[in-house]
Backbone:
């Protein structure tokens, strides 16, 4: 890897294109280095993972509305598939990216990477796959495109913090998806450079989408970034340009949106000829909740099984990282996180609620655990309101550690009882994490797909999809065009909009 220093430049300094971060990203995307076998295997896992959560969410409101928006945008063959729809019901690729992106993101249940910035790199897959289907790309090239999207998003997340400036993490997704599409199509570096700049420029937004009363836009935001990436590549292929230099310019992203004209960032990127392996640094979710909740759900299940009477608890304190405390904990100062009538998206970002339910149920379910009647149980509310979080500098340090033996996304929990006794335990990473008690492997991804697709996708259709996905490297373009799943009797809401 090469560590690239990124800073602002005055317009009079005339920063050369080859010295700009967008060009360096484009150079990585257009480097024809082979994809390593273990990387290709993990790409397959994440294609299955995306389909799992999309199947579970396909009838929910946000994915349904996104699908209804997409369906009028039909296109002459080949087009791209939409999750749940017949395989021959094709739409324009940017709209397939939109509909499928919302379905994938709706339940907050696919993969994650946490470093200086947060990310869900599986959000790269819907736009890259949609373009692959539309232009007729084979499985090997699709794997390369997805591996590239993951590489760029992970590297940007390692080098540039967005959330400290209240910028949403999808600002890294626009450039990474554009780079992945560029790699997929084997475009010239100049074209990808322009697409990366355009995609960044139009996908930078604030984090209010994840603050206060969190709405369904949380699921739409990455889908919008993917849709914008498809359109950016299309424009760049036609010869249209982007603001330049987009990161380093005097009025660019660093100077006015991030840390300012004096800031210095270090972004690691593979050298030319070096394999793109960043997907192996990422990890998926066993539970449908914010990633910082994964280890704490596992710990809550354990503690809940050790306590005979939860009503005897006086107080629970979760000692954890700055991010967990301030984003999904009491440090956010969001009263909505303690409200039993809050939206699913808000409860998903309340570790107090999540921990209480996981203790009581000694498990977690992507629908039942968020049901209004579940959130409204008096005993749950009582326990929930006894829980608070506090930042522990050591957990914050470990959260940001680059040492795989030290990195931690969990916390230490202290349970105080009415009789004065105390129960204490801690867990650094989720059981399903690569360093956890039982890391996810191919069979776990398949089990997750079958579990979430049960009762929604027929067994025969599950088998057809899994057979294609597991043979992704050998698929023809015609096979890639079938890489989706059909839901029989999929109904629509009848909502009315412009389209």
Residues:
């Amino acid at each position: 890897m090469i560590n690239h220093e990124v800073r602002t430049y005055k317009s009079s300094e005339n920063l050369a294109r080859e010295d700009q971060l967008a060009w360096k990203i484009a150079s990585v995307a257009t480097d024809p280095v082979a994809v390593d076998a273990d990387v290709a295997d993990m790409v397959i896992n994440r294609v299955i993972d995306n389909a799992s959560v999309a199947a579970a969410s396909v009838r929910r409101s946000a994915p349904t509305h996104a699908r209804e928006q997409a369906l009028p945008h039909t296109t002459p063959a080949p087009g791209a598939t939409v999750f749940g729809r017949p395989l021959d019901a094709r739409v324009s690729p940017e709209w397939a990216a939109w509909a499928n992106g919302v379905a994938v993101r709706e339940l907050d249940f696919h993969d994650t990477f946490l470093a200086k910035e947060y990310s869900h790199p599986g959000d790269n897959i819907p736009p890259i796959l949609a373009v692959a289907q539309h232009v007729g790309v084979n499985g090997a090239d699709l794997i390369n495109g997805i591996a590239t999207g993951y590489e760029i998003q992970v590297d940007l997340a390692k080098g540039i913090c967005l959330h400290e400036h209240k910028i949403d993490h999808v600002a890294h997704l626009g450039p990474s998806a554009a780079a992945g599409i560029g790699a997929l199509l084997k475009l010239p570096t100049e074209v990808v450079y322009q697409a990366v700049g355009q995609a960044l420029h139009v996908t930078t937004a604030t984090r209010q989408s994840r603050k206060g009363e969190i709405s369904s836009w949380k699921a739409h935001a990455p889908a919008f970034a993917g849709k914008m990436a498809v359109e950016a590549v299309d424009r760049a292929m036609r010869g249209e340009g982007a603001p330049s230099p987009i990161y380093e310019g005097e009025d660019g992203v660093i100077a006015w949106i991030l840390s300012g004209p004096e800031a210095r960032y270090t972004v690691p990127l593979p050298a030319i000829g070096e394999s793109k392996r960043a997907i192996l640094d990422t990890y998926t979710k066993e539970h449908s909740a914010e990633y910082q909740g994964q280890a704490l759900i596992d710990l809550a299940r354990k503690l809940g099984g050790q306590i005979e009477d939860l009503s005897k608890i006086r107080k629970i304190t979760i000692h954890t990282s700055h991010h967990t405390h301030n984003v999904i904990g009491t440090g956010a100062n969001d009263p909505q996180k303690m409200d039993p009538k809050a939206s699913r998206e808000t409860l998903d970002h309340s570790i107090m609620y999540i921990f209480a339910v996981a203790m009581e149920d000694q498990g977690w379910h992507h629908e039942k655990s968020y049901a209004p009647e579940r959130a409204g149980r008096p005993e749950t509310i009582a326990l929930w309101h006894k829980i608070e979080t506090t930042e522990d500098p050591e957990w914050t340090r470990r959260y940001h550690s680059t040492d795989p033996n030290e990195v931690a996304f969990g916390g230490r929990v202290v349970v105080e009882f009415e009789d004065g006794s105390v129960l204490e335990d801690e867990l650094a990473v989720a059981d399903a994490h690569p360093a956890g008690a039982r890391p996810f492997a191919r069979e776990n991804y398949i089990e997750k797909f079958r579990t979430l697709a049960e009762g929604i996708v027929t067994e025969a259709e599950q088998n057809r999809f899994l057979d294609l996905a597991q043979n992704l490297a050998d698929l023809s373009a015609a096979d890639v065009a079938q890489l989706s799943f059909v839901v029989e009797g999929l109904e629509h809401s009848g909502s009315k909009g412009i389209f």
In short: The beta strands are 2-6, 113-114, 118-119, 265-269, 313-320, 387-391, 411-417, 422-427. Residues 2-281 form a domain with the 2-methylcitrate dehydratase PrpD fold (CATH 1.10.4100.10).
